């Protein structure tokens, strides 16, 4: 769950990070009023859940309230990457001597949180990593032990920052890391952090993404910063495909068959929930495949529910074939899922033997499931074929 | 869509005992049985493919009165 910048900064302020004076406004008049209140040149920033605001014309500078009103009116009308702004952030304009970058995220490979710090902020961090690796540090830390300021200091000092700057930046990075851990973030990023002409260092922009499942845990915080309970924001609005899949899942309480995210590939995926589905999604990509979707199926959905999801996926014009794959299942029954996917294919007007590239769900009732698949001519494999190998076989069939 | 995977055959003798008819409706976890207006038990076509092969219907009746047929094994 991504936060608007004005919300993210409220959260950040709670962790002792210095920020510019600012006001959130939803009308041009309110932006002019905020400019008067801040009493000087301001920067007006579109509040959209998207990057690329500057390039799109969503960030403008104003010296007077009148200018601020005109700019805010234009920005409030501006759609960026298909998203309408929730308002504008009016912020005092500060003169910046140097920019830094700090982010905390999870390193999936190391299975630990990671601080990324650079003394080259304000630009694309991937570019810094590639072209100026000496200007970027990567520092892992423990997610289970209390965060130590020393770790933040190591991250900052690793790129050669010393003295007063080191102390100030350590406080900011430590605050960001604690926020990340305590608020169940998946990404907490400040880009840029600005060193002002008076030597003080503040956060100029901020991007926070919270684990959606943690909404309940942090309800009080969300209420405090004004996020309504029913504001189920995502990085982009859901597609019709995703909405239809959510409806399939909601229509029948038996098991799970949904949580679908659309991608632009041609291989439809019907994959097992949790780690299994993530692994399988990655396996398809590693094999050179291009998934049309991510989804989660598990908890023994009914035949009709599995069929409805399969039908929906098969009906997408970009989907050439589907792969039905899970890790070894225990409470989800192989035969029930097999019935569902075969029925879904047929209901969508396809021959299951042609449409299903591979069926790899080993586990409970697999003998019954395999008999069924055989009857319909669907290629299936048991647990002796790894998830990665099954994904490779599915991808190989796409060109066939 | 008609059932593709499962057929459930009910012997005529089941209809002689209203209590057994009622019990079939109650035991099936996926609502495959219902009573018609005359109290006779019958299958619900839309639900047949949901059969979990639990055999509760078979246990609730005399041997041979209910036959759960896996069409994909035929
Ligand atoms: S075997 Fe179980 S699920 Fe199938 S019809 Fe009989 S009671 Fe219902």
Labels describing this entry:
heterodimer, A: 400 residues, alpha+beta, Dna Ligase, domain 1, D-amino Acid Aminotransferase, Chain A, domain 1, Rossmann fold, four-stranded antiparallel beta sheet, 39% helix, B: 74 residues, Alpha-Beta Plaits, two-stranded antiparallel ribbon, 2 helices, 4 strands, binds iron/sulfur cluster
Brief rundown of the structure:
The complex is a heterodimer of chains A (400) and B (74). Chain A has 400 residues and is an alpha+beta fold.
Number of separate strands of chain B: 4
Mean pLDDT across residues of chain A: 94
State the shape of chain B. Answer: globular
Number of helices of chain A: 15
Strand order of the largest sheet of chain B: 1-4
Give the oligomer, counting copies of the same chain as homo and different chains as hetero.
heterodimer
What number of domains of chain A? 3
CATH architecture descriptor name of chain B: 2-Layer Sandwich
CATH topology of chain B: Alpha-Beta Plaits
CATH level 1 name of the largest domain in chain A = Alpha Beta
Bound molecules: iron/sulfur cluster
What structural class do you assign from the helix and strand content of chain A? alpha+beta
Major β-sheet profile of chain A: 6 strands, antiparallel
């Amino acid at each position: 769950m991504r936060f608007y910048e004005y919300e993210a900064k409220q959260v950040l302020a709670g962790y002792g990070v210095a920020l510019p004076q600012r006001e959130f406004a939803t009308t041009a008049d309110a932006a002019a009023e905020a400019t008067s209140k801040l009493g000087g040149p301001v920067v007006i920033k579109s509040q959209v859940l998207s990057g690329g605001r500057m390039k799109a014309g969503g960030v403008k500078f104003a010296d007077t309230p009148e200018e601020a009103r005109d700019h805010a009116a234009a920005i409030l009308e501006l759609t960026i990457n298909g998203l309408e702004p929730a308002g504008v952030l009016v912020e005092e304009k500060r003169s910046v001597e140097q920019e830094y970058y700090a982010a905390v995220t999870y390193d999936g490979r190391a299975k630990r949180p990671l601080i990324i710090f650079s003394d080259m902020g304000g630009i694309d961090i991937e570019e810094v990593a590639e072209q100026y690796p000496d200007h970027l540090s990567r520092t892992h830390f423990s997610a289970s032990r209390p965060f130590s300021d020393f770790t933040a200091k190591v991250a900052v000092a690793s790129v050669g920052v010393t003295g007063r700057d080191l102390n100030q930046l350590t406080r900011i990075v430590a605050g960001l890391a604690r926020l990340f851990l305590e608020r169940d973030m998946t990404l907490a990023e400040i880009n840029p952090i600005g060193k002002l002409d008076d030597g003080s260092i503040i956060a100029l922009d901020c991007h926070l993404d919270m684990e959606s499942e943690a909404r309940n845990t942090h309800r009080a915080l969300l209420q405090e910063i004004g996020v309504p309970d029913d504001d189920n924001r995502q990085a982009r609005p859901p597609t019709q495909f995703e909405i239809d899949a959510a409806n399939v899942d909601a229509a029948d309480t038996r098991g799970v068959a949904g949580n679908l995210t659309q991608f632009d590939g041609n291989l439809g995926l019907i994959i097992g929930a949790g780690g299994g589905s993530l692994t399988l999604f990655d396996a398809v990509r590693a094999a050179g495949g291009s998934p049309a979707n991510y989804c989660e199926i598990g908890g023994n959905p009914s035949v009709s529910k599995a069929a409805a999801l399969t039908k929906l996926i098969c009906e997408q014009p970009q989907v050439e074939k589907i792969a039905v794959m899970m890790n070894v299942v225990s409470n989800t029954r192989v035969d029930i899922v097999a019935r569902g996917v075969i029925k879904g294919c047929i209901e969508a007007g396809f021959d299951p033997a042609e449409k299903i590239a591979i069926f790899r769900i080993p586990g409970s009732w697999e003998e019954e499931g395999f008999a069924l698949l055989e009857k319909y001519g669907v290629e299936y494999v048991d647990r002796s074929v790894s998830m990665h190998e099954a994904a490779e076989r599915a991808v190989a069939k796409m060109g066939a | 869509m008609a059932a593709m995977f499962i057929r459930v055959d009910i012997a005529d003798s089941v209809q002689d005992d209203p209590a057994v008819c009622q019990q079939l409706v109650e035991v099936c976890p996926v609502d495959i049985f219902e009573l018609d207006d005359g109290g006779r038990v019958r299958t619900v076509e839309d639900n047949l493919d949901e059969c979990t092969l639990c055999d509760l219907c078979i246990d609730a009746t005399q041997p041979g009165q209910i036959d759960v047929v896996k069409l994909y094994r035929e």
